[in-house]
Please model this.
Amino acid sequence: MNMLRAPAWAMVCAAAVLLSAGCGSAAPPRFHSLLGEPLRVAAPTLAWRLAPVSVPAQVDQPQFVLRRADGSLAVLEGERWQAPLQDELRDALSEQLGARLGPAGQTAAAGRAEWRITLEVARFDSTPGRATLVAQWQLQSSRQRSGQRCSVRHEQAVADGVPALAAGHRRNLAQLAAALAAALQELDAGPDAGQTLVCPA
Model:
């Protein structure tokens, strides 16, 4: 039986090591999050909870999805979300609301309503230079069958690059949370106030 001589075997091993190193030399993915710097939770002002957030299927994946000028989508394998996008949206919005309304899940005081927030995201677009959020939210009171429903659009002009786009989406969520908190506080103030609530432009 023929055996490889030691020098030849060493060369084969060296080639295998180099090949393995070359295959593993690709840059690791960068991870992004919709959660910014930790926010201080406000003192409880009303009872609220946020339902699971729905997002469009085409962007609900680990990779960052970029919408090109011609409308096509590019999946960026090297740019990823820290967690599933649904969870990122819900966690970031919950933190923003907590900074304005107090922690979620509080028990309502006697005679006060508990509020359920539902958010349906229609568009979560990352285009070069712009981050766009189009969504519909509903505020449902435990004391009334009807709820307040609004459609909103938030856009941020951003610099080039995925980190700038992620920062733009964080600003969109902060604006959405501010509008939601203001609407909840107005509705919670009483039935008369709720009748005059105007959806944000």
